[in-house]
Structures are given as C-alpha cells and as structure tokens.
C-alpha cells in the first residue's frame, strides 16, 4: 500500500482525495467535501420543527402499537410508525455510517465509468438504478414472510421489520454495495476469498453459490403458486416481458434519456395488460392460459435463462424500473388507502402460536423462527448478492450508494409492513384457510372450515359461505390452501382498496392487480438473481480459469447461466411436486439460508472494516452480525435436531421412512406411497442442505473474526480495493439534486457536445 493510502484523512474527507487529479478542462466532477458537509449540518427553525414533528408522530405510533391494548388496533399506526422511523434512520443513521465508516469520494471513478462495456458495466441514472436495485432485491421475501409470520401476531413482526432494517438490513446492503463497487463490482464470494483467505473464502464461495440456488428457486416457487390456474395473472405478467423489451429499445435507440416519457408509456401499457387479462380470462385464450404448476415452472426456468444472458439494458434494467413504478406506486397507494379507510385490526399483538411449535402456517416457536420467516423485509442475504452483483457495476458516483443501498432497503421494509397489514386485515379464519396446506384442509371448503375451527382460535368461526363468497368476490374458483403468501396479500389488498376505490364490484380487479404486482416483484428478483448467480460462478471458476472472470465473454456467460438455472430449476420442480406443499416445507429452509448468507455478508464486511482500522465504529456491523448469527444457527439446530416432525427435517424424514418400512400406504399428509417417498427424498435433501449451510456459515464467521483480530493487532491491513482512477463525469447523489449539485450540473450541460463524456448506458 502506498504512503498516500496509509495516511489518515481528515474527518469526513475521503482518504484518496489528494491522489486524484481532475481534468482541468472539465467542470467539477464532484461536490467538494466542505460544501457537502455544510449542507448536512445546516439547521433552520423550520427543519428543526419538521424533524421534531416526525419524531413525535413516530413515538405516538409506536406507543399505540406496542403498549395500548384494546380489542382492535387501527392500521394507520403501522404506516406512521414505519415511515417516521425510516425518515429518521435515513437522515441520521445512514449519514453517520457514510461519514464514519465509508467516506465516499466522487472524485474517484466507479466501475461503471472505468470498466464501461454497455452490457454489465453501464453507468445508469441514479433514479433508474434505484428502481432496478429495489426491484431486484424486493422479491418474495417482503411479501411472503410477513404474511406467513402473521400467525404469531402483529407486534413481533412489526418490531423486527422496522427496527431490523434500520440496524441490520439496510446497513448490510449499503456496506456490501460500497465495498463491491470499490473492488470493481466483484461478487460477495470473491470478496470473501480476497479478504478471508483460502479456507474462509472457499467456504463463502460454496455457501453463496449453494444458497443462491435455494433462494432463486423459492422466489420462483412463489410465482408459480400465484399464477397457477390463473389465466388473468399469466396473461398480465407475461405481457410485462414485451413491454420491458420495448422500453429498453426505446431508451437505447429511439429516445435516449427520456426516462419520464418511457415510464408513462410503460405504466399505461401495464394497466392495459391488467385490463386485457380480465377480458381474456373467460375466453378460449383464457382456457389456453390456465396452466398447471409444472408448466408455469418450466416457463419460468426458460425465462430465467434468457433474461440472464440478454444485455442488461434490454430487459433487466427497464423491466426492473417499470416494475418499480408499479411496486412503489401500489405500496404508496395502499398506504394512502389505509390512512383514509382506517381498517381496524382484530389480530392479537402476540397470538396463541407465538410460544408453540405446531403452528399451521409456520412450525416452530417465535424465537428464532419469526426472524427467519420474515427475511427480506428486515435482513436478507440475497440482497448482499445483488449489492455485489448487478448494481455496483452500474453506479455512476460513490455518494449514490447511500440512496440506492440504504434507501432501497428501507423501501423494501415498507413493502413488508404493508404486506403484514394486508394479511392481518382479513378475517383470521380466512387467513388460516388460505395458508394451511392442502394436506391439512383437504383442498376443499368443507375441509378448510373443519380444520380452521378445530384450531380453537378465539373469535374465529369460519363458515363455508365466507370462503365461497370471498372466492367469488376476487374472481377465483377457490381460495382454500392458496399457500405462498401472495394470494393472501392479494385478498387483503383487494379488501382494503375496494373500500377506497370502486366498492365490492372492483375486488376481482384489485385482486388480480395485486397478483400481477406480486409476480412482477418476484420475477424481477428471479432474473436479477440468475444474472448475479452467473457472475458469482464466473468469479469462482475464474480462480482456476481466468478467462471466466471476463463477464463480456459470451460463451462463459452462457455456460455459467445454464449451470445456475439448472440448479435452481431442479429445486423449483421439487417444490412444485412436494406433497407437503412446497412453500410450507421449503420456505423455512429459504429463510434460514437467507439469514445465514446475511451473517456471511456481515462477517465479510467486518473483516474489510477491520483492515480499514475503524474499530471505534465497528459495532455498527458487530451488532447485526451477532444477532443474525445467533438466530440462524439456533434455527438451523432446530431444523437438524428437533424431534418434532413438523419442525425437524430429519425427524420428518425418519417418521415417513419408518412408515414405508412398515409397509404403510399412506402416512400423515401423504396419501400415497409415491407421496411418502417424495417426502423422504425431499426431507433428506433439505436436512443435508441445512447441515452444509450452517457449517459453511460458521467457518466464514469464525474466519472473519480471526482476520479482524489480526487486523486489530497490526493496526489495519492492506486494502484489496481497485486502484483509484480519476472520474471524468458528474451526477447528483440523491433522488433530488441539491442547489449546489444543480449549479455543477448546469456547467456540464453547457459543455459543447464534442466535449461531453459519452456514457455507455441505457439511460
């Protein structure tokens, strides 16, 4: 490391500012540190009053949720508690992390500038990139996890979603994105190999690849469950693909830079796709689009491969940006509807199933299973893969990472809170009828009524008419055992929105609007996840065959994509054909694997920060790392060693295996020998993966702690960052440019065309 790099910078000043020389013929490429710091510290009476009001409203909301105990709680307090907490966290805590740990330097070029190839490395407008990143990270987790965890009551999930994201999830996303960007956009596994050495790095590489396969498979499984036997949903979601392709071509060739224009066009086309889906549902085309789960699964597998090998500007980025309009717009619309309609929530703060291990939706006690069931809305390892995959290769300026990384995760947390509110706003009897497996309900209205009423829930008296009427209202044949969380969220959203706009006659529209909204959420995570998985595999193979590290080498890209799609596709088919209901048995594995990956990501961040010798503030990472490690290792022990078949994979495996050896032809929820054999096979795979995942995670965490101790004793260590390259472009850091940034942008806009820097991007 050079002497310039070893020298400590002044507080708030990037360490390498003094070694980067700007082109004197260009306007400033960055807002100077003093001006930026002055903007942050400028306080007026109006600003003080606004922030005091936000803090007061947030405090009152938390008081109403956590301490006031009546028969009901109004849903508006969830909205206010979440939004106020997010505002305060973003303004103060994320800025504290930026100033004390990262010190971004906009004089320094990002990989999108110095590696620009127009395919994977493509400088992208920060607002478009925020949309891409948010769409990529916001998959099934923030929709499904809160819905499933609602069986434990509303308060534990609310606390974990909001407080967890502030102290853990958003911190992880922000740090991983920044560190990957500083390392040329390298994957999480490759960073681990560089930071932790051969043992820890190899364990991290294997863990991230294996866990990524599981995560993408579960994301795809949720889409399958949402679209199965739903021609309206299949048509609407299918139409988003040509719409996104059109938007990509429009921005690339027809009207470059016209982001707002193409967004409006895309939004109108999306609405037409939803309306068209309703029109064709009862026609011959609708019959052709009424597909079973296996057919939809194969369609998603083929789509995942194609989407991952196409240039990022053609499908991935415009589709993500398009879906972000739908996602953010829908969530904001739902929040406004909640404030106006003010639905009363009758679900208890902490339910009967919080302290038991036999919940009909999620088996296992509140600790640790709440924290692995609600993953993506609070803390998600999958995000670390996106934050070290596509996004860091597209960032224009380093200071944008706070807006995209920390801010993007806060928006996902808000999605999770809205999903939780939607789930708990419907009748509890209907909730359990929808989320209990077909093996428990028999898949019939009568079976669902009998099962739910046998649970002995206070205030619940489910009738057949309640289920048939709700199914009729949302335009579906049945809502019984529509597991996976997505249909429940759609019913809750439709119920709230029909009270806001349209009345009961609009419930079917709102339901299918929500289904498309959810499928869009998840499909964008599937295609982005597959692309990231390809990057990870290329990085891993590149340790032995260096040519694979060249992401522009199409042959290597196609080979690695095919391998990763084959991996998650096989798990998807296993879940689709699982007699126990794939989502019920696979989602716990998804949650645990996802949080183990988060612990791995935080451990890598710990090692990197230790090398930077910032031990005074390293608690920012140690706190979430310690919590995630305890939760996920404990949950893994439950799944491996529990003697309760509903909780432990091996207990379930041995129970069904014993039944087969006794010659029984049905057992528990499996009604045939083939179904029993499938349970034995699937639980063996799931149990084995649980052992592998937790072992690899422990190796990585221990290795990172040892590396951090060595760095502490030596006062830091050389950095693995790419050499600093002077930037030759400018871009604002937040969603809205500040007055100082607007002045610099005006200087760039005034340059003659032949002197402007040409960006190899879709935007």
TrEMBL record:
Residues 74-635 form the CstA N-terminal domain. Its main location: membrane. It is a multi-pass membrane protein. Keywords: Cell membrane, Membrane, Transmembrane, Transmembrane helix, Transport. Residues 1-10 have a biased composition (Basic residues). The keyword DNA-binding does not apply. GO terms for cellular component: plasma membrane. Pfam families: CstA. GO terms for biological process: cellular response to starvation. Residues 1-24 are annotated as: Disordered. The keyword Transmembrane helix applies. The chain crosses the membrane at residues 48-68, 74-93, 134-153, 159-181, 202-226, 232-250, 262-281, 296-317, 324-341, 361-382, 403-426, 509-526, 556-577, 589-610, 617-641, 684-707. It is found in: Cell membrane. Belongs to the peptide transporter carbon starvation (CstA) (TC 2.A.114) family. This is Carbon starvation protein A.
């Amino acid at each position: 490391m050079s002497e310039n790099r070893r020298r400590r910078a002044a507080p708030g000043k990037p360490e390498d500012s003094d070694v980067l020389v700007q082109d004197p013929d260009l306007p400033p490429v960055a807002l100077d540190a003093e001006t930026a710091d002055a903007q942050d510290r400028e306080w007026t009476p109006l600003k003080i009053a606004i922030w005091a009001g936000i803090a007061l409203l947030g405090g009152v909301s938390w008081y109403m949720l956590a301490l006031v105990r009546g028969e009901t709680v109004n849903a508006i307090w969830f909205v206010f508690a979440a939004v106020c907490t997010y505002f305060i966290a973003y303004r103060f805590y994320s800025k504290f992390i930026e100033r004390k740990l990262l010190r971004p330097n906009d004089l320094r070029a990002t990989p999108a500038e110095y590696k620009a190839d127009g395919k994977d490395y493509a400088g992208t407008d920060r607002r478009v990139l925020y949309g891409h990143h948010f769409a990529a990270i916001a998959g099934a987790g923030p929709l499904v996890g809160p819905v499933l965890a609602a069986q434990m009551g509303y308060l534990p999930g609310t606390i974990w979603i909001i407080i967890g994201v502030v102290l853990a999830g958003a911190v992880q996303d922000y740090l991983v994105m920044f560190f990957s960007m500083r390392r040329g956009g390298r994957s999480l596994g490759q960073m681990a190999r560089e930071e932790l050495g051969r043992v820890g790095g190899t364990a991290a590489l294997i863990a991230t690849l294996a866990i990524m396969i599981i995560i993408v498979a579960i994301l795809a499984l949720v889409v399958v469950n949402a679209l199965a036997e739903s021609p309206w949903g299949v048509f609407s979601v299918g139409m988003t693909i040509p719409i996104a392709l059109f938007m990509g071509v429009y921005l690339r060739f027809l009207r470059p830079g016209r982001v707002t224009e193409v967004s409006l066009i895309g939004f109108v086309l999306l609405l037409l796709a939803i309306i068209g889906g309703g029109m064709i549902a009862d026609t011959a085309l609708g019959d052709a689009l009424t597909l079973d789960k296996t057919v939809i699964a194969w369609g998603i597998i083929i789509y995942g491969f194609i989407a991952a090998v196409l240039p990022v500007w053609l499908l991935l980025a415009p589709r993500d940006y398009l879906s972000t309009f739908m996602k953010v717009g829908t969530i904001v619309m739902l929040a406004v509807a909640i404030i106006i309609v003010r639905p009363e929530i009758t679900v208890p703060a902490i339910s009967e199933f919080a302290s038991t291990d036999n919940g009909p939706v999620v088996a296992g006690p509140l600790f640790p299973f709440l924290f692995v069931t609600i993953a993506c809305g609070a803390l998600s390892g999958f995000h670390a893969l996106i934050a070290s995959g596509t996004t860091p290769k597209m960032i224009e300026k380093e200071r944008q990472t706070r807006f995209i990384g920390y801010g993007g995760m806060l928006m996902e947390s808000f999605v999770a809170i809205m999903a939780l509110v939607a789930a708990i706003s419907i009748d509890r009897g209907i909730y359990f009828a929808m989320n209990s497996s077909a093996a428990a309900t028999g898949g019939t209205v009568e079976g669902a009524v009998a099962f739910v009423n046998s649970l002995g829930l206070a205030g619940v008296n489910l009738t057949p008419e309640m289920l048939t009427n709700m199914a009729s209202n949302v335009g579906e044949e049945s809502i019984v055992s529509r597991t996976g969380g997505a249909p429940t969220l759609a019913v809750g959203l439709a119920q709230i929105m029909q009270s806001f706009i349209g009345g009961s006659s609009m419930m079917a529209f709102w339901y299918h609007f929500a289904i498309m909204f959810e499928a869009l959420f998840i499909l964008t995570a599937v295609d982005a996840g597959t692309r990231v998985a390809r990057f990870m595999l290329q990085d891993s193979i590149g340790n032995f065959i260096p040519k694979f590290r060249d992401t522009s080498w199409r042959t290597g890209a196609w080979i690695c994509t095919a391998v990763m799609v084959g991996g998650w596709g096989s798990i998807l088919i296993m879940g689709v054909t699982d007699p126990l209901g794939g989502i019920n048995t696979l989602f716990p594995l998804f949650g645990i694997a996802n949080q183990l990956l988060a612990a791995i990501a935080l451990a890598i961040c710990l090692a990197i920060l230790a090398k930077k010798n910032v031990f005074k503030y390293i608690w920012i990472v140690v706190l979430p790392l310690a919590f995630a490690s305890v939760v996920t290792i404990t949950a893994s022990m439950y799944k491996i060693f529990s003697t309760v078949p509903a909780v432990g994979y091996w207990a379930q495996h041995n129970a069904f295996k014993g039944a087969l050896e006794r010659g029984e032809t049905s057992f528990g929820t499996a009604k045939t020998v083939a179904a029993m054999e499938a349970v034995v096979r699937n639980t063996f795979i799931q149990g084995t993966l649980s052992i592998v995942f937790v072992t690899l995670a422990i190796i990585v965490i221990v290795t990172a702690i040892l590396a951090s101790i060595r760095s502490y004793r030596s006062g830091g260590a050389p950095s693995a960052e790419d050499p600093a390259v002077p930037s030759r472009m400018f871009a604002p850091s937040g969603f809205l440019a500040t007055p100082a940034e607007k002045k610099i942008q005006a200087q760039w806009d005034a340059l003659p065309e032949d002197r402007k820097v040409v960006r190899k991007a879709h935007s």
